Amino acid sequence: MLRKIELKTRLNATPGKVYDAWLDGKKHSKMTGTVATGSARKGGTYTAWDGYITGKNLELVPGEKIVQSWRSTDFKKSDPDSLLEIRLKAIKTGCELTLIHSKVPDNQEDYETGWKDYYFKPMKKYFSK
Prior knowledge:
By secondary structure, the protein is an alpha+beta fold. The chain is built from three helices and six strands, in the order βααβββββα.
């Protein structure tokens, strides 16, 4: 069985800046404090968290939406890739980010806390500068 996680956060940045930071390896690395690689083209591959996460860009709508295949080194070889969707919406104070992580195998840890602690917290700090 597969699970779905949906989370929201607000960031002090434009949707375009968040979009660029998510896809650019150098900016993503600074944003999370770990090594990442990236691509801003459909079909491009990426890594995050020192290679713990890998995937491919499936759909890109600049400043609005990122859809990526996503898997961690904790996935079993038989597990299919999960799906990560990042939706960005302009608000008065910057950007509302909606993260939808679906098709997460049941045998995986609960990633909800990980998204909050290892992405949302450092992103708020990164974009508050």
